Amino acid sequence: RFGSDELKKQFLTPTIAGDFVACLGISEAGAGSDVANIKTTAVRKGDEYIINGGKMWITSGCQADWMCLLANTSEGPPHRNKSLICLPMNLPGIHVAKKIDKLGMRSSDTAQIFFEDVKVPSRNLIGEEGKGFTYQMLQFQEERLWGAASVLTSLETVIQETIDYTGQRKAFEQPILHNQAVHFRLAELATEVELLRSLLYRAVALYVEGNDVTKFASMVKLKAGRLAREVTDSCLQFWGGMGFTSEVLVSRLYRDLRLISIGGGSDETMLSIICKYMGTLPSK
Ligand SMILES: Cc1cc2nc3c(=O)[nH]c(=O)nc-3n(C[C@H](O)[C@H](O)[C@H](O)COP(=O)(O)OP(=O)(O)OC[C@H]3O[C@@H](n4cnc5c(N)ncnc54)[C@H](O)[C@@H]3O)c2cc1C
């Protein structure tokens, strides 16, 4: 939204075409929820920025062609001293230190990356210097709406697969699904999924109209994370021992969807934002 046409052509077009893999470099070992506290610096020297520091938890960091990097470009106040920079990942001084071994999302690599005097042209700056924090907060709204949208199908699928499995699996001479505790619970979960969908659609409609949807996007993300945990946990239980194996989708979603309450801002960060909009967050 804020980058030059040249940057869009160089980085966005090939990424959308599927020729480049992009990654987002915000979180650091010492600053995840507290984004304002990142320590990576990009110091302007002539026509270049010299980057030093490191990033943590970077999705696709092991294979990315470029990173959208958030770094401190001045010593000013933390919300006005940051900038977003398009950083090609093949530059000297970029070290992908490790691929992190994770509970879930195992088909997606997650990297820790260090920068040592990495030189990048100053024209790779996105928008205005010092506006990076604001741009990033805007991006988070879209990421959080997307995060919720991306789980809807998984939740529907896991409920349907659980109906199918418990409908044919028998215990005490009747399908497990015929126990009211099971079919009522699945009905409740399906209802919750529809509520999530409605809140998401409402937030997206407001966003498309050009409104600030920070509060709604945070509510949607919070609900998506919590509901994903509830649905996968309840469904897994109805699969019995099979649910605890690696052979079924429910166990994978139980692990993978656990990330939603953490990545892109934890549930507690969402609650803090909602409280801020409700006027109930105590000022420091
Ligand atoms: C698989 C995976 C992929 C990721 N991909 C990326 C990526 O591509 N790019 C990127 O930049 N980052 C990425 N992240 C990082 C993610 O955004 C952070 O993990 C997340 O923001 C939380 O930061 P943290 O892990 O440092 O937790 P911390 O900030 O250490 O917080 C730990 C916990 O403390 C609690 N907490 C924090 N603040 C508060 C508060 N105000 N009130 C109450 N409780 C609180 C929460 O429960 C939180 O989960 C990824 C993370 C994972 C696990």
UniProtKB/TrEMBL annotation:
Any keyword Ribosomal protein? no
Single GO BP term: fatty acid beta-oxidation using acyl-CoA dehydrogenase
CC terms in the record's Gene Ontology section: cytoplasm
Q: In which pathway does it act?
A: Lipid metabolism; mitochondrial fatty acid beta-oxidation
Task: Give the top-rank taxon of the lineage listed in the UniProt record for this protein.
Answer: Eukaryota
List the keywords (alphabetical).
Answer: FAD, Fatty acid metabolism, Flavoprotein, Lipid metabolism, Oxidoreductase, Transit peptide
Residue intervals of the Acyl-CoA oxidase/dehydrogenase middle domain = 23-118
> Where does the Acyl-CoA dehydrogenase/oxidase C-terminal domain lie?
130-276
What are the required cofactors? FAD
| Molecular function (Gene Ontology), one example | acyl-CoA dehydrogenase activity
Which reactions appear under catalytic activity for this entry?
A: decanoyl-CoA + oxidized [electron-transfer flavoprotein] + H(+) = (2E)-decenoyl-CoA + reduced [electron-transfer flavoprotein]; hexanoyl-CoA + oxidized [electron-transfer flavoprotein] + H(+) = (2E)-hexenoyl-CoA + reduced [electron-transfer flavoprotein]; tetradecanoyl-CoA + oxidized [electron-transfer flavoprotein] + H(+) = (2E)-tetradecenoyl-CoA + reduced [electron-transfer flavoprotein]; octanoyl-CoA + oxidized [electron-transfer flavoprotein] + H(+) = (2E)-octenoyl-CoA + reduced [electron-transfer flavoprotein]
Cited CDD domains: ACAD
Q: PANTHER family, from UniProt? A: ACYL-COA DEHYDROGENASE 6, MEDIUM-CHAIN SPECIFIC ACYL-COA DEHYDROGENASE, MITOCHONDRIAL-RELATED
What family does the database annotate?
Answer: Belongs to the acyl-CoA dehydrogenase family.
Protein's recorded name: IVD dehydrogenase
